[in-house]
Design a protein that fits this description.
The complex is a heterodimer of chains A (299) and B (653).
Chain A: H1 3-17, E1 28-30, H2 34-58, H3 63-71, H4 74-108, H5 111-115, H6 125-138, H7 152-176, H8 178-181, H9 188-218, H10 228-231, E2 233-235, H11 236-242, H12 244-253, E3 260-261, H13 266-296
Antiparallel strand pairs in A: 1-2, 1-3
Helix pairs in contact in A: 2-3, 2-4, 2-9, 2-13, 4-7, 7-9, 9-13, 11-12
Chain B: H1 2-13, H2 26-33, E1 39-42, E2 45-48, H3 53-58, H4 66-69, H5 94-102, H6 104-110, H7 119-123, H8 143-151, H9 156-160, H10 168-174, H11 176-183, H12 192-196, H13 213-221, H14 232-235, H15 239-242, H16 250-253, H17 270-277, H18 294-298, H19 307-310, H20 336-344, H21 346-352, H22 361-365, H23 385-393, H24 398-402, H25 410-416, H26 418-425, H27 434-438, H28 458-463, H29 467-475, H30 492-496, H31 507-520, H32 522-528, H33 532-538, H34 547-551, H35 571-576, H36 602-652
Antiparallel strand pairs in B: 1-2
Classes of the chains: A mainly alpha (299), B mainly alpha (653).
């Protein structure tokens, strides 16, 4: 244990829980702001809703699609739900952009500074070495890399959303207003937009419900679920091991205490888990449906 | 005509040159009139005024003097006056003359009608013989010729005077009376005068006439005295004569002059049959009941038809007249056209083969209680037809078990169809019943080209009611009139089915129709299902474009046809039916797009190709990453546990 850390803990212990034995588990490290957590929850809700309503059309030849479509109140109702959550998702995206812009103003002044800051989502040199390190680790030729604030796969997921919103969003608008847009574009573009919208959505759902789920929840050290995206906080020990680079940097800077918070009460954690499970199981269900539709019922 | 005139002139001119002035003996007259060359000029023609003394002396008037008849020449001087009156019969034949003057002939003659017959016209002049003499001009055998001389077809009388009957002579000659008289020489057979009387011939409209409606029975019974034995029902006492206005007269069945011997010859009366068949306990050898409920017959369409008219082989000369009956009733003896139709139908063909399952007339129409198809109680009334046909054609029944085609549960399906519901639930008798499509008597399997439900006849059959649709269809690309091809073209039933026929505005129909089109247009249907329209309908919703929304339903034309719903000038309008804001470019959307055809749809093909590449690439990359990660992660989990437990111990210590 490094010197700085000991100092911080003892200070904290004095400040907050002076009369009691210092309980390190009392404090957790906050990784996500309240806004980001809310946005992610909205993202989950809208993403799953969009996936379910959209896939009823894509896989209309499966019995499940027929049942689901009727449960949703018919294809028109499903269409309204789909467009409503499309608006929600785009709003989430815009809110995030606004949030970044605000952050830039407050903390970084310029975009360049923001993008190249250590906590940035932008790929950097460390990611290259991390990827190489990870691959070495995978094949048993090295230690687990010292991951920082964001790992490269998290950055990949993050930019995948940008790509997805852009591609699915733009084609979605085309399909939403074909009569208006064909004043500018030829009719066959609608066909092209349909293919792109549909296949990109398949990519997104397939990727999120398998790769993203594995990366964040299902990999053995997090199994069955990492609730940090909902609670925003993670046990300090776990954090230290998981993100050693960032941890050490914070300790060095003496900023660690800024991120230490009390854990949520049990009831909140339990609620989060219920929501998490619901999202996870829905995602798995969709994956099963996709596999069934693509492989067993495809025509 | 010429014959009359001759007789008439002969009568007149016999006395143009009377014999001696005052003696007035026959010899005085014959003095001149014995001369065979004696002639007189009438209208520029030389007419003989010779009197054959031989004939005169052997005639019925042999004992009479010339002047007894030629009364105007009595006491006249010789040579007598030029214009001699006609010889008169009245002084002796007063009664006959009275009748004659009242008759049509007499009245016409009094009016100066040149066509009207006088005594001599029928009886002749100097050579008149007794009626009973077979050589008489008015002997029974001669009567038809005598009357026929004026009343044959085309004669001036028939043409110029109002005679309600035609072909009188011909018809009479062929009638049972004429045949008996002329062919068999039966002189007691009725001749013209037997019915019309000899001298008092009156029109049938005259109540005094022998052929007036109320007198006919009396006239006929002069000969047919025992007729009531075979006409009991009609006569029953004296009803026949007393209520002539409600009861049939002889001529209603036995037309005047055409008294045929076909049906009526044997003269079996229903009452004779009912003597036995009116008994409820009457049974045939095979214990079938032979009881005939006469009240049933009385309420039927055949209420005026006698037993023997249907059961034709009865023979009244036998003690048991029905003894000779071996064949079933043949309705076609009256219903000839229907009988011919039936014989060519599958029912009739099977019947001819003695197939025990074949339905005969009575199986559908009943027997003694047969009712018209307009009677709601009739088994052939529109509403009852499905029930009637179901007797054999319901699943498991005798016709259904023989059937090897694809139509099953037809009765149930018909009942649920729009026609069946219209008929049986809404009581619409104009809706199509079995018989409307399959015909009533000419049912044939659909494979038979003559069948009303044969592929090439279906549109005409449906068009009997759905005329406007047939009109559209006949102009469409699906009509054999338009498209000449070896391939099978769709008929109405291919889309609407044969018996299940649904309401076309209901979802069940709308959704199946795409599969119907897809049966022939397989490729194009598949590509439809790749589009939003197809996918939504696949989910079971109809509020999206289906085949017929764009292509039309009965008026489908090739897109190259300017009248097609999808022609260049119409396609935008067609899109606008659903997409109000559709424009020319909007109509460029591929409604049958497939991303599998790089030549036809390169953009779609390469987009799909690219997207699939992206998908596979991403998943392969991420999959490999994940799979490599998994074993490491498992290992790491163990290390982590150890580490965490070690660390958590630390502060406690």
């Amino acid at each position: 244990m490094v010197e700085g850390e000991k100092q911080i803990i003892s200070e904290l212990a004095t400040a907050f829980v002076a009369p009691m034995t210092v309980n390190r588990e009392k404090f957790q490290f906050q990784r996500f702001s309240r806004l980001n957590r809310v946005l992610h929850i909205l993202m989950i809700v809208s993403f799953i809703s969009l996936a379910l309503t959209g896939l009823t059309i894509k896989f209309s030849y499966t019995g499940w699609a027929v049942i689901l479509s009727h449960l949703l109140g018919g294809f028109e109702s499903a269409g309204y739900i789909h467009r409503f959550f499309a608006v929600v998702m785009v709003s989430v995206f815009i809110t995030h952009i606004v949030d970044i812009t605000r952050m830039k103003k407050k903390e970084y002044k310029t975009w360049r500074a923001l993008i190249f800051s250590p906590g940035s989502m932008m790929f950097n040199k460390k990611d290259v070495s991390d990827i190489i390190g990870t691959l070495k680790w995978f094949v048993g030729k090295g230690e687990r890399p010292q991951y920082g604030r964001w790992t490269y796969w998290e950055k990949f997921d993050y930019f995948a959303v940008f790509w997805g919103i852009l591609v699915i969003g733009s084609t979605g608008v085309t399909l939403w207003f074909p009569e208006l847009l064909t004043n500018i574009i030829p009719g066959w573009v609608i066909n092209v937009a349909t293919i792109i919208h549909s296949d990109e959505a398949l990519l997104a759902t397939g990727f999120i419900f398998t790769v993203h789920f594995f990366n964040t929840h299902l990999r053995p050290e997090k199994f069955p679920m990492d609730i940090v995206i909902f609670s925003g906080r993670t046990p300090l020990e776990e954090y230290k091991i998981d993100r050693p680079a960032e941890y050490e940097e914070l300790v060095e800077k003496g900023e660690l205490e800024k991120y230490l918070v009390e854990p949520y009460p049990q009831i909140v954690v339990r609620s989060i888990k219920v929501f998490g499970w619901a999202a996870l199981l829905t995602g798995f269900g969709i994956v099963v449906w996709i596999i069934y539709a693509m492989i067993f019922a495809y025509r | 005509m010429s014959k009359h005139l001759y007789i008439f002139l002969l009568g007149c001119l016999s006395f143009v040159f009377p014999a001696a002035a005052s003696a007035q003996d026959n010899s005085d007259c014959l003095g001149c009139h014995e001369d065979k060359t004696l002639t007189r000029k009438v209208g520029g023609k030389e007419i003989s005024v010779f009197v054959d003394q031989k004939k005169l002396s052997s005639s019925v008037h042999a004992g009479n003097k010339c002047i007894d008849c030629h009364v105007d020449l009595k006491d006249s001087d010789f040579p007598h006056k030029e214009n001699v009156d006609r010889a008169q019969c009245t002084s002796c034949h007063q009664a006959e003359n009275k009748d004659y003057t009242e008759s049509l002939h007499g009245k016409a003659s009094a009016k100066g009608d040149k066509l009207a017959p006088v005594c001599q016209s029928c009886h002749g002049s100097h050579e008149i013989l007794p009626v009973k003499d077979s050589k008489s001009a008015v002997a029974p055998l001669q009567i038809p010729y005598v009357c026929g001389s004026c009343h044959h077809e085309g004669s001036p009388v028939q043409v110029q005077r109002h005679i309600p009957q035609s072909n009188i002579l011909e018809n009479y000659t062929e009638s049972i009376h004429g045949e008996a008289l002329l062919k068999k020489g039966l002189v007691v057979a009725a001749t013209c005068v037997s019915c019309h009387s000899a001298h008092r011939i009156l029109p049938h409209t005259d109540p005094r006439s022998s052929i007036a409606r109320k007198n006919i029975a009396g006239t006929c019974t002069k000969c047919h005295a025992g007729i009531e034995n075979v006409h009991r029902k009609i006569i029953r006492g004296e009803l026949w004569e007393k209520e002539a206005h409600v009861l049939p007269a002889c001529v209603d069945c036995h037309q005047p002059h055409k008294v045929r011997n076909v049906y009526y010859e044997q003269g079996m009366a229903d009452q004779d049959c009912l003597r036995c068949h009116g008994k409820k306990e009457l049974k045939a050898a095979d214990s079938r009941s032979m009881f005939v409920n006469y009240s049933e017959l009385a309420g039927s369409r055949h209420t005026k038809v006698a037993c023997s008219q249907c059961h034709t082989s009865v023979n009244p000369s036998k003690l048991r007249p029905c003894e000779g009956i071996t064949a079933k009733v043949d309705c076609s003896s009256c219903h000839a056209e229907i009988g011919d139709e039936y014989k060519t139908s599958i029912h009739g063909q099977l019947f001819a083969k003695n197939d025990p399952n074949a339905p005969a007339c009575s199986d559908c129409h009943g027997s003694h209680g047969v009712l018209g198809k307009k009677d709601p109680k009739s088994s052939t009334f529109a509403i009852n037809i499905p029930v009637l046909c179901a007797k054999c054609h319901r699943e498991g029944k005798k016709a259904a078990v023989r059937y090897t085609g694809t139509e099953h549960n037809i009765i149930e399906r018909y009942t649920e169809s729009i026609h069946g519901k219209g008929l049986m639930k809404s009581g619409m008798t104009v809706t199509a019943t079995c018989a409307d499509c399959h015909t009533a008597h000419h049912e044939l399997p659909h494979t038979d080209p003559a069948s009303s439900v044969n592929r090439k006849n279906v549109s005409a059959t449906c068009g009997q009611c759905h005329f406007g649709i047939q009109e559209q269809f006949d102009k469409s690309v699906h009509s054999p009139l338009v498209t000449k091809t070896d391939k099978e073209l769709p008929a109405c039933n291919d889309c609407h089915t044969a018996h299940t026929i649904r309401r076309t505005d209901q979802d069940a129909f709308k959704l199946t129709i795409m599969n119907q089109c897809g049966r022939c247009h397989a490729e194009i249907a598949k590509t439809y299902f790749d589009t939003y329209h197809g996918k939504v309908s696949q989910l079971g919703y109809t509020k999206t474009a289906k085949c017929y929304d764009c292509h039309g339903s009965h008026d489908i034309l090739p897109v190259t046809d300017p009248n097609s719903h999808l022609s260049h000038q119409n396609v935008v309008k067609t899109c606008q039916k659903c997409h109000a804001g559709a424009n020319r470019q909007f109509a460029g959307y591929f409604t049958h797009a497939t991303h599998h055809d790089p030549n036809k749809y390169p953009w779609l093909y390469w987009t799909f190709f690219g997207m699939t590449g992206l998908l596979i690439g991403t998943f392969v990359f991420a999959g490999v990453h994940t799979l490599l990660w998994l074993p490491r992660s498992l290992q790491y989990r163990k290390e982590l546990k150890k580490k965490l437990s070690g660390e958590s111990e630390h502060p406690k210590s």
